[in-house]
């Protein structure tokens, strides 16, 4: 448990308050209870989960009143992004009533790839606890994320969530509908949502959707759209999250490049 506690202490920032803090408090409480039942802890924690969550919500409310848009990028750290991923993944995975082993394995593999095995194991302990929590409010959690997280990081969250839905080879309509709702709560507009969705689902016009343009546009407009999207999805925009998140950012950027190359070939320019 000491390693888990150390990871929690080092990974979290603004997520310690509000609805995400409440979800984390529940998950930590579940992990502590499990460890206590196995004799790994000599004493239970002094504060109950309810007291911990109430205190976290109070801290969140105070910070919410003074946060500004300019602070978002500075305050969104790797640990905050990491926990946001875990909570939103749990919400999406539970929407169709069944969490498959392949979906869980995708989350574990993703975290191992990004953070290494030890940190991923701690993250998965937390993730399993969050999966057990029944009253997660999608709207409130997304409002907290939107309040503190910059736009580029929110786009990356959406990219990851589509990866989770495809992990088991079956994408339910309810999962896609929920991700679209999450995008709205995160203040991600419809064009950005369709752009990222097209990176995972390959309709005939996916290249146009990724570049956020219509089929009727001119070649010059395609070039202009490519420059705009390359700037929007450039990995440098996620440097503040740390090197561990750059691979996912590069994958998104590569989709833009491939979409442009496809249209170059189709339109002959």
UniProtKB/TrEMBL annotation:
The keyword Lipoprotein does not apply. Gene3D superfamilies: DnaJ domain, TerB-like. The chain crosses the membrane at residues 12-32. InterPro entries: DjlA_DnaK_co-chaperone, DjlA_N, DnaJ_domain, J_dom_sf, TerB-like. Keywords: Membrane, Transmembrane, Transmembrane helix. Residues 41-73 are annotated as: Disordered. PROSITE patterns: DNAJ_2. Residues 206-268 form the J domain. This is Chaperone protein DnaJ. It comes from Kordia antarctica.
């Amino acid at each position: 448990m000491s390693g888990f506690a150390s990871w929690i202490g080092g990974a979290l920032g603004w997520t310690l308050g509000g609805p995400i803090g409440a979800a984390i408090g529940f998950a930590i409480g579940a992990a502590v209870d499990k460890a206590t039942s196995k004799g790994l802890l000599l004493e239970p924690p002094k504060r109950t989960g309810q007291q911990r969550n109430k205190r976290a919500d109070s801290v969140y409310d105070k910070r919410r009143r003074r946060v500004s848009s300019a602070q978002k990028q500075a305050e969104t750290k790797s640990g905050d992004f990491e926990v946001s991923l875990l909570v939103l993944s749990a919400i999406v995975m539970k929407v169709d009533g069944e969490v498959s082993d392949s979906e869980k394995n995708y989350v574990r593999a993703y975290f191992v790839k990004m953070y290494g095995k030890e940190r991923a194991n701690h993250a998965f302990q937390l993730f399993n606890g969050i999966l057990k929590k029944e009253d997660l409010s999608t709207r409130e959690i997304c409002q907290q994320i939107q309040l503190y997280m910059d736009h580029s990081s929110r786009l990356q969250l959406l990219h990851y969530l589509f990866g989770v839905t495809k992990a088991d080879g079956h994408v339910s309509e309810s999962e896609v509908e929920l991700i679209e709702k999450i995008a709205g709560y995160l203040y991600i507009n419809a064009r950005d949502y369709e752009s990222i969705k097209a990176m995972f689902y390959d309709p005939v016009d996916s290249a146009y959707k990724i570049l956020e343009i219509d089929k009727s546009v001119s070649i010059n407009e395609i070039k202009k759209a490519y420059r705009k999207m390359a700037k929007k999805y450039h990995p440098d925009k996620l440097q503040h999250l740390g090197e561990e998140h750059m691979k996912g950012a590069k994958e998104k950027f590569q989709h833009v490049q491939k979409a442009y190359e496809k249209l170059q070939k189709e339109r002959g320019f």
